[in-house]
Amino acid sequence: MSSENDLLVARLTQGDAKAIEYLFKQYYARLTLFANRFVNDIDAAEEIVSDIFLMLWENGHEINFTGSISSYLFKSVQNKCLNYLKHQKIENLYVNYLEKQHLLEEVILTAESPYLEKEMVQQINIALESLPEKCREIFMMSRFDHMKYKDIAKQLDLSPKTVERQISIALDKLRRLLKHVSCLLW
């Protein structure tokens, strides 16, 4: 290990804020680009890298650095990206399951009053309108026109992977925006 690395490790284990700031300035952009290669979502990549720096700030004094700090940071980002992708896959499977079982429609149909149903429809429309234009277009083609990803990709001159990612982004944003709507039902 280099003496600069040793000095940084010593400063981190002492909780030195300047050491974190230095590492953030040195690595944030590179780590974000690295994370984006995994998750293909710059917002998620930024959040992942920010989480790593927060963890480093909170627990840096407890970490046993056996190699370089650079290696530690890149490996931490890689692991967090893989966990993020696993979580996304599980969420997508759950939403697909609900759609196949027509449970989403049942939830909407079980609204106790016309007011609640109208409120839910309004909230869903607001959430859909808040999506980026291309993302909304792809989502609506998939969910409302019942088009397959490959057909959407062909029609919009995109790769099927891009269509899949846009659907995933839309579902994630809609889930977050509509969290409170499900509370109205229960």
Automatic annotation (TrEMBL):
Domain RNA polymerase sigma-70 region intervals: 23-89
One example GO MF annotation: DNA binding
Record bears the keyword Transcription regulation: yes
Pfam families per record: Sigma70_r2 (PF04542), Sigma70_r4_2 (PF08281)
Gene3D superfamilies: 1.10.1740.10, Winged helix-like DNA-binding domain superfamily/Winged helix DNA-binding domain
InterPro entries cross-referenced by the UniProt entry: RNA_pol_sigma-70-like, RNA_pol_sigma-70_dom, RNA_pol_sigma70_bacteroid, RNA_pol_sigma70_r2, RNA_pol_sigma70_r4_t2, RNA_pol_sigma_r2, RNA_pol_sigma_r3/r4-like, WH-like_DNA-bd_sf
Residue span(s) of domain RNA polymerase sigma factor 70 region 4 type: 127-174
GO biological process per UniProt: DNA-templated transcription initiation
Keyword set, alphabetical order: Sigma factor, Transcription, Transcription regulation
PANTHER family: RNA POLYMERASE ECF-TYPE SIGMA FACTO (PTHR43133), RNA POLYMERASE SIGMA-70 FACTOR ECF SUBFAMILY (PTHR43133:SF46)
Family indicated by similarity: Belongs to the sigma-70 factor family. ECF subfamily.
UniProt-recorded name of the protein: RNA polymerase sigma-70 factor (ECF subfamily)
Organism encoding this protein: Mucilaginibacter frigoritolerans
